[in-house]
Design brief:
41% of the residues lie in helices and 14% in strands. By secondary structure, the protein is an alpha/beta fold.
Length: 266
């Protein structure tokens, strides 16, 4: 596994396991399978309503807590200082842990700065190892950092070959914030697995379309959290560090950028 060093010095796995839409006992088994396959970053959120099964899976895995990087996010129901304080305690209880590795504001809410005050307090108290944001575009990010006090360690945003958001990545880099991709495979908004260019490049390396799509992002310095319930695909998504796309191939994939969101977030 490759790791990235965040702006406060802690290390974060470059590839993690996303848990959006994973529920119940079947979902817990998927998380356990991911941990067995080698994933050490598990990404969840209060909005997903599955923090409890993430906590159960981590507890049952037998893997030392310090070897697992847990990310969660607070959403609209915690959009105030006091509500965010309560939300952090709720996540700690649901995840069955004394600390959260990365805590994010799920969306750019009107009260985001107020929420962030609770985040900073939890960070100072050691309940959170790193704090950040999610789904902030360039304008909202730049406005946020003018008065947030602590530069976000991560901005988790939609990023894939059709909309990698490389210009946003440059802005984040300039201020010390790491970009992390959700929807690396577009979550079905486009049939990425049928893309001829990605197939052709994959054939050159004996890799799948999924591996090429992920490799493009990580080679641009973007962390990823793909989701799959199939063990063979989980393993495949981890095996992206044993090949390197050429400058020509990177440029060809860059031409796939449509420069607009598939989800209407921005």
């Amino acid at each position: 596994m490759k790791y990235l060093t965040l702006n406060n010095g802690i290390e974060m796995p470059m590839v993690g396991f996303g848990t959006w839409d994973i529920r119940d006992e079947k979902g817990k088994k998927s998380i356990l399978t991911a941990l067995e396959a080698g994933y050490r970053l598990i990404d969840t959120a209060q909005m997903y309503d599955n923090e409890n099964i993430v906590g159960n899976a981590v507890h049952e895995s037998g893997i030392a807590r310090q070897d697992i990087f847990l990310t969660t996010k607070l959403y609209r129901s915690s959009a105030s200082y006091q509500k965010a304080k309560a939300g952090i305690e709720k996540s700690l209880n649901e995840l069955q842990t004394d600390y959260i590795d990365l805590l994010l504001i799920h969306e750019p809410y009107e009260n985001a700065l107020e929420m962030y005050e609770a985040f900073k307090e939890a960070y100072r108290e050691g309940k959170v190892r790193a704090i950040g944001i999610s789904n902030f575009d360039e304008h909202r990010y730049e406005k946020f950092i003018q008065s947030c006090g602590v530069i976000p360690a991560v901005n988790q945003v939609e990023s894939h070959v059709y909309y990698p958001q490389l210009s946003l990545k440059k802005v984040l880099n300039a201020h010390g914030t790491q970009m992390q991709s959700w929807a690396s495979f577009t979550e079905g908004r486009k049939n990425i697995f049928a893309e001829p260019l990605l197939k052709h490049i994959g054939n050159e390396y004996g890799k799948s379309v999924a591996q090429v799509a992920l490799r493009y992002l990580v080679q641009n310095g973007i962390a990823v959290i793909p989701k799959s319930v199939h063990k063979e695909r989980m393993i495949e998504n981890l095996e992206i560090f044993d090949f390197h796309l050429s400058e020509k191939e990177m440029a060809e994939i860059r031409q796939m950028d449509k420069n607009h969101s598939l989800f209407g977030w921005y």
